[in-house]
Amino acid sequence: DYIARVEKEDNVIKAFLKLDKEAVMLAAEESDRRRASGSPLSPYDGIPVGIKDCIVAEGETCSCASKILEPVVSPYDSTAVAQLKANGFIPFGRLNMDEFAMGSSCENSAFQKTANPRDPQRVPGGSSGGSAACVAASFAAAALGSDTGGSIRQPAAFCGIVGLKPTYGRVSRSGLVAFASSLDQIGPMTHDVEDAAILLDAIAGHDPMDSTSLPDPAGGFAEAVRKAPESFKGVKIGLPKEYFAEGGLSAGVEKAVRESIEKAKSLGAELVEVSLPHTKYAVAVYYIIATAEASANLARFDGMRYGKRVDGKDLVDTYFKSRGEGFGDEVKRRILLGTYVLSSGYYDAYYLRAQKVRTLIRRDFEEAFKSCDVLLTPVTPTVAFKFGEKSDPLQMYLSDIFTIALNLSGNCGISVPAGTDAETGMPVGVQLLAPAMAEARLLSAAQTLT
Ligand code: GLN
After folding, report:
1. What is the pLDDT of residues 19-32, one digit of tens each?
2. Domain residue spans in the chain?
3. Ligand 1, closest atom to CA 101?
4. Half-sphere exposure of 431 (CA within 13 A, CB side)
5. Going by CA atoms, what residue is nearest to atom 5 of ligand 1?
6. Has domain 2-226 been given CATH number 3.20.20.80?
7. What region holds the Amidase domain (predicted)?
């Protein structure tokens, strides 16, 4: 059924970069056999999960929507995909994204523009736009995305689905092509909160293959959702005042988010105003740290070790040509920015300073969580915009304002649907944020709210 739907509708949506139908059908037959013999790998054996094209799966291409990695086939499974398979989930295709996860609309893909299933004139968000569109169009039961500065939560909001960014270190990054290593996390994109918890149960946990993976035990998330109380009695929900600044939200987004706040209140939540005073620096800090890390991480794509090679007259010329033709404009812009902020003479002024402000941003959250259990905020300033509407990169960066501080702090957060914008009919998301390792609390609150 899922394959049939993709064949019928993905020519318009363009969520998939590749879908190996034979491999999927083979896996499905194996799953059927396990079920028939009474030994399924889990209750979810046979369920298809779409995979963002920066998360490797054995025998599948992994282009990161970049020409430089177009020919690459992965010889191994990322830990997240291996854990999905161990539970019987079937990796279902390779999903479009902004090149190397850099962007907020999927327009930076080197190959295709994915449309928003709710209105194909509009972007699905990014960078996990293919994953969000895949779930919103019911091309698969769920998908994996990655979130470095909002790339799971923002497209989830734009497409009317659920997107969870786990605590940094919760889900192994082994086999996730690195963009900004201190910010990247893999997470689930799903139809509802329970599905997100089920997938997190499958993919979370310590992994010796990722040195930043947390040793803490993980699991019991689906259970927490199933036991989520009907009311918010005794729960304190913090509203960071910087996220509700005058003029910061479009009317439709503001209305839907306010309605969510009212709903939380009517369910018994105690609302408390909190402050995250360094929010105003988050975009600047993120675009220094993320580009610095990206410039280092992307140095490995040199036309020698991986992917596309364009032969030049000597080694250096081959590097130049391979990278020059292999990377798109946004990726080059970020490599240049990142190299600049790391260069001697500028390192202290930009990179080091950004790291210091990052600490202040993290402390803001620690302080705020002293007076509340979860935070509630908007996910995006506007609903999904039309293709080409945000052609200025800086405007695109600024639209990440509500999602990136979470990655800088390492805490966990989720975007859940919060109604539609009357003017455009597009979905609006609302974001809940919780301290590091508090996914059970976060998911439980998200379930109560939805
Ligand atoms: N939109 C942000 C960026 O372009 C976030 C991307 C992400 O989370 N991968 O960097």
Report:
1. 999 999 999 999 99
2. 2-226
3. 9
4. 33
5. 149
6. no
7. 1-443
Q: What is the structure's pLDDT at 401?
A: 94
Q: In what order do the strands lie in the sheet with 48-52?
A: 16-18, 90-95, 48-52, 142-147, 185-190, 162-165, 412-420, 427-434, 374-378, 236-240, 270-274
- pLDDT beyond 90 at 305: no
Q: Say how many residues make up the chain.
A: 450
Using the predicted structure, report yes or no on whether residue 71 has a pLDDT greater than 90. no
- The answer to whether residue 127 is catalytic is yes
- 3 Ramachandran zone, left/alpha/beta (phi>0; psi -120 to 50): alpha
Q: Which atom of ligand 1 is nearest to the CA of 103?
A: 4
Report residue 186 as tokens. 């893999």
The runs of H, that is alpha helices, within 129-232 are 129-136, 153-159, 193-203, 221-226
pLDDT per residue over 323-368, tens digit each? 999 999 999 999 999 999 999 999 999 999 999 999 999 999 999 9
151 tagged catalytic = yes
**Ligand 1 pocket, mutate which of 177, 295, 404, 431 (most atoms under 8 A from CB):** 404
Region 249-271 average pLDDT: 97
What's the 88 CA to ligand 1 centre distance in angstroms? 30
Q: Cα(391)–Cα(396) distance, rounded to whole angstroms?
A: 8
Looking at the CA of residue 404, tell me the nearest atom of ligand 1.
5
Q: What integer is the mean pLDDT of 146-160?
A: 98
Phi first, then psi: give them for residue 336, nearest 5 degrees: -65, -45
From the CA of 148, how far away is ligand 1's center (Å)?
6
Q: For 221-244, how does the pLDDT look when each residue is reduced to its tens digit (9 = 90+)? A: 999 999 999 999 999 999 999 999
Q: In whole angstroms, what is the distance from residue 335 CA to residue 264 CA?
A: 43
Please tell me the pTM assigned to this model: 0.97
Taking residues 115-128, what's their average pLDDT?
Answer: 98
pLDDT tens-digit map of 186-198: 999 999 999 999 9
Q: What does the DSSP assignment read for 262-279?
A: HHHHHTTPEEEEE--GGG
Does this complex have an ipTM over 0.90? yes
Does pLDDT of 285 surpass 90? Answer: yes
The contacts of residue 139 (CB under 8 Å, 6+ apart) are: 2, 5, 6, 9, 10, 13, 15, 16, 50, 92, 93, 133
Please state, in angstroms and rounded to a whole number, the distance separating the CA atoms of residues 65 and 253. 30
CA distance 94 to 105: 17
Scored b (16 or more CB within 10 A) or e, 249-266 reads bbebbbbbbeebbebbee
